[in-house]
Write a structure and sequence with these properties.
The complex is a heterodimer.
Chain A lengths: L1 H16 L2 H34 L5 H11 L4 H12 L14 H38 L3 H11 L1 H17 L2 H7 L9 H11 L2 H34 L1
Helix pairs in contact in A: 1-10, 2-5, 2-6, 2-7, 3-5, 4-5, 4-8, 5-6, 5-7, 5-8, 7-10, 9-10
Chain B lengths: L23 E10 L2 E11 L4 E5 L6 H9 L6 E6 L2 E2 L2 H4 L2 E4 L10 H11 L4 H14 L15 H14 L4 E5 L7 H16 L3 E5 L3 H7 L2 E6 L2 E7 H6 L4 H7 L6
Parallel strand pairs in B: 3-8, 3-9, 6-7, 7-8
Antiparallel strand pairs in B: 1-2, 1-4, 4-5, 9-10
Helix pairs in contact in B: 3-4, 3-5, 4-5, 5-6
The chains are: A mainly alpha, B alpha/beta.
Chain lengths: 235, 256
């Protein structure tokens, strides 16, 4: 139990003193995961909406695949991205391995299926309600997708949050493609893994607490945004 | 109020011009689902003018008929033509439909109407005054900025009707728009329908409220088991219906 007490004291000490190393790690974590979620959203939301609205052969199979990819193990994604970006790999010339960009790519791959699958579910439900009305108004399928995405925005914010939660908490992919290099690619989760292996359990736990607060903060911010602007329109 | 009403079912108004979408002609319309024939060979011609009320027992196929005419579902057999042409995007744009349960977008009241006009490709400068005008007509002016989905049931249906009318449709299909509304809201809806009819919008409306049919109908199309049991001018229908199902229906008997 001593570890827990130490951890809390240490955590708030780190936050209170504004430890520069900590700030750097937190900012990199946020930058990598938020960028990855943004990219995943830009790909996953239209993809999910298309899977919900379009009818084409193989659609059912594709939905199963996307749903299954939600459970993609981060280390496997890390390994695949590593193979692509390593010097021997097809994208080796880009020299992206062990950079934040590589971490963003890996996390975006990890999160895209989550956002796509959740978007498909949300848009599918909404489309059941909207379909005939939109067709009656003469809305084409392309505009219908836009309308459905916009009208599902409150639920989609939750899907983005789920994606962010997954990205910011995973360690397997970022440690493989990022390498946990101090001041370059060290993020919250890789730092925790490192401190744990070094035996600095209190520091590791402190970082864990900060990570948790971070996740709480992001969720609270989105919820506040939702209740202000969106909740009423969603009723 | 100047109403164009044709009281005779066999009335024929001036020959259709090339630009008109009416007459709407359904020929041998059949709709099957799950091995059951839900619409069983309906022939129907709708000329400009009269307000047509579609009556019939639950499950007779009234809503299906409306959706077939509007083009939301494809018939298993038969066809629907508009002034001799099959429906296309251009013809769909000149129609509108109001559903039993209003489907409102998760946006403000004004934005719901604006959306319909935007789909029609109206520039903003034209949309804004028309949205304001429709809100006034439907008595929703005070609620313009409210989220549409928090309105009461009657207000929602009024908005749904206002949205449909904002596009100035030449024909308006209504599928039991007042089925779950209180009398006050029903009256407001009926007044809007009346006004639209007076402005020349062809009204085709499904209801199972006989009182409403009496108030609104110029003619009645009675549907039974997916067929047109009879089509009669309203004043005649309510006094002496021709078909047995309609007679039973008016007498309050179960029509099976």
């Amino acid at each position: 139990m001593q570890d827990f007490t130490d951890a809390f004291v240490l955590a708030f000490g780190l936050i209170a003193t504004g430890n520069t190393d900590l700030v750097e790690i937190v900012l990199l974590s946020l930058r990598v995961s938020l960028t990855a979620v943004l990219i995943a959203g830009l790909i996953g939301m239209p993809l999910g909406a298309l899977l919900a609205v379009a009818r084409f052969p193989g659609r059912g199979g594709l939905i199963v695949v996307v749903n299954a990819l939600m459970g993609l193990p981060p280390v496997v994604v890390g390994l695949l991205v590593y193979l692509m970006l390593s010097n021997a790999g097809p994208l080796g010339v880009l020299q992206l391995l062990y950079t934040p960009t590589a971490m963003i790519i890996a996390q975006a791959i990890l999160v895209t299926p989550i956002i796509a699958a959740l978007t498909r579910q949300v848009v599918d439900d909404l489309n059941r309600e909207y379909d005939e009305q939109l067709r009656s108004l003469g809305v084409g399928w392309y505009d219908a997708v836009g309308t459905l995405l916009w009208d599902a925005r409150a639920s989609l914010a939750t899907a983005m949050l789920a994606g962010f939660g997954r990205a910011v908490a995973e360690v397997g992919a970022v440690i493989i493609v990022g390498g946990n290099i101090n001041h370059v690619t060290r993020v919250m989760t890789t730092a925790i893994a490192l401190e744990t292996s070094k035996g600095n359990l209190a520091l590791a736990l402190a970082l864990g607490i900060i990570l948790l607060l971070l996740a709480l903060g992001v969720n609270a911010a989105v919820l506040a945004f939702r209740s202000d602007r969106l909740e009423a329109a969603r009723a | 109020m100047h109403n164009i009403r044709s009281l005779d079912t066999a009335v024929s108004i001036a020959a259709p011009r090339a630009g008109d979408i009416l007459p709407l002609v359904a020929e041998g319309l059949v709709f099957e689902a799950g091995g059951r024939r839900l619409i069983d060979g309906i022939d129907l011609t709708l000329l400009p003018g009269a307000r047509t009320l579609v009556l019939g027992p639950n499950g007779a196929g009234k809503s299906l008929l409306l959706r077939l005419l509007h083009g939301l579902i494809r018939p298993s057999a038969g066809r629907v033509t508009w002034n001799g042409r099959p429906a296309d995007a251009g013809i769909l744009r000149r129609q509108a439909m109001v559903f039993q349960k209003p489907v409102l977008l998760r946006r403000s009241v004004a934005a719901n109407i604006d959306y319909a006009l935007k789909v029609r490709g109206l520039p903003r400068a034209e949309r804004n005054p028309r949205v304001a005008e429709m809100l006034r007509t439907a008595d929703l002016g005070d609620l313009a900025a409210s989220p549409a989905r928090v309105l009461s049931g009657g207000e929602q249906q009024r908005l749904s009707l206002a949205r449909a009318l904002s596009t100035r449709p030449e024909i308006l299909f209504l599928d039991e728009p007042t089925a779950s509304l209180d009398p006050g809201s029903t009256q407001a809806i009926e007044q809007l329908i009346d006004a639209a009819a007076a402005n020349g919008t062809r009204i085709v409306m499904v209801t199972h409220d006989l009182g409403q049919a009496r108030r609104l109908a110029d003619e009645v199309v009675f549907i039974h088991r997916g067929r047109v049991a009879e089509r009669t001018a309203a004043f005649r229908f309510f006094q002496s219906p021709v078909s047995k199902p309609a007679t039973d229906f008016l007498a309050g008997d179960l029509v099976i």
